[in-house]
Amino acid sequence: MPKLDQPKILVVNDDANSLFALTSLLAQWAEEASYEVLAARSGQDALRQVLMHDFAVILLDVNMPGMDGFETAEAIHARARSADIPIIFITAFLADELDRLKAYQHGAVDFLFTPVIPQVLYAKISVFVALAMKNEELKKQARQLSQRTTELTATNQRLTREIEERKSMERQNHAKDEFLAMLGHELRNPLSAISSAASLIGLPGVSQDGVQRAKKIIQRQSQHLGRIVDDLLDLSRAMSGKILLNRAPLDLSALVAQTLDTYRATGRSADYALVQDLDAGWICGDSTRLEQIASNLLDNALKYTPQGGRIEVRTWSDNDDVVLSVRDSGVGISAELLPHVFDVFVQGTSTLDRSQGGLGIGLSLVRRLAELHGGSIEAESAGPHRGSTFTLRLPQVEHQVAAPAAPARQRAQDNKPRLLLIEDNDDGREMMTMMLGAYGYEVTAAADGLLGLSAAQTGQPDLALVDIGLPGIDGYEVARRLRADPATRDIKLIALTGYGLAEDLRRVMEAGFDRHLVKPVDIEQLMEVIGSCAPVAVRQ
């Protein structure tokens, strides 16, 4: 244990001889008793010493000129820091009981009369020195205990944070595990349907009606797989800030009405009471992304509302905002889950049979898209089985008059352009060649970029469909080489890619492509793009 500071004794006496005698007497025991002796010639000098030091005991002469011993004692004890210093009065005069009472009232602990008996003095000051040393040791222990308490508190707070972080990570990992399991479920279901339908088509004795139904199943489930991939990619882009909005003034109520019409036309809302109350409200936003928000909110309501339930969709203006509200009478949201419904990979527990499907990332995407539009999204629920309400707020703009749509360009019905398809995936190349052939196009196919360049040189097609992710030289390089060659520079180029970010579109256009399509490509969209890119020579 570190050595404690030596206690100090203050001797106060106006008589130089008496002061010398007392300090000398105390000094001979100082080393043995481990204390230090200080002297003062007056009450004022004593007060200055008390301001600078802490004392184990003060030997104070009663009869001093100016400020006597009683006044000095009163002044010493009036100060908070020195209020508890024990004072032993020393006097050459015989003190009566009133003097003793006055001394004790001023904080005296004892009286000594001169001449002082050394043994008595040593016995008395030893008690106070030992007490001072003990007090100092206790203070030191208290400081150490306080420091240790502070350290333990900090350690406890750190451990608490680590425990909470670990619990949060465990929740996130559990949510991710559930998400991956759900992703596997959502992917296997359409893949199983596609596989079964494809096998059915090849079986002998299958009726024409059965073949048609199988084809529709393949088409429908392929679109479902495409939506799953789009959701995953959109969430990734939104979280990384790579979504660029194509903003334009639009009426939110009209967009929501179109979305509701789609749900009714496809039968997705047939088993529910779907009520709408839509007031016009103009915003500046990306119609595709806003439709995605509306669809995800409706999907969420359908997923967690039992059949026969009620879903209310409203839009209105509120000060500087346009508001979209989707309220359902479904399973509701618990108080524990409510703050996390917009977190990634979080999904509520539902007792439904999950006929609506979904990955549980729709609400996360909704929040991010709302924020990208400068808006916000909130969730409310009174608790389990009491429904929920999602409220979207977007900044309002002044009513805009839409410009008249440009007349559609007419596509030639015959003299169709000759096509070159450069695609390294064998199945994809074969299917697209067959599909384009069924629409009356003459198609030359190539399995990589170099073969495609050679086919373009010899066949001189009017239009080339080029996959970006080709082995050897990629689609960008194919486009650059075609544009650099005078014999092929006028071929119309359409990029086929699985990448749909704004950066990908920029690279495609810089490489020399005319259009950019993201896989899987819808056949109607492909026909429209081929028609818009068809050379003038083949138009009527």
Automatic annotation (TrEMBL):
Transmembrane segments: none annotated. Residues 128-172 form a coiled coil. Keywords: Coiled coil, Phosphoprotein. SUPFAM superfamilies: ATPase domain of HSP90 chaperone/DNA topoisomerase II/histidine kinase (SSF55874), CheY-like (SSF52172), Homodimeric domain of signal transducing histidine kinase (SSF47384). Gene3D superfamilies: 1.10.287.130, 3.40.50.2300, Histidine kinase-like ATPase, C-terminal domain. It catalyses: ATP + protein L-histidine = ADP + protein N-phospho-L-histidine. Residues 8-129, 418-534 form the Response regulatory domain. Residues 182-398 form the Histidine kinase domain. InterPro entries: CheY-like_superfamily, HATPase_C_sf, HATPase_dom, His_kinase_dom, HisK_dim/P_dom, HisK_dim/P_sf, Sig_transdc_His_kin-like_C, Sig_transdc_resp-reg_receiver. The modification 4-aspartylphosphate is found at residues 61, 467. Pfam families: HATPase_c, HisKA, Response_reg. Its EC number is 2.7.13.3. This is histidine kinase. It comes from Duganella lactea.
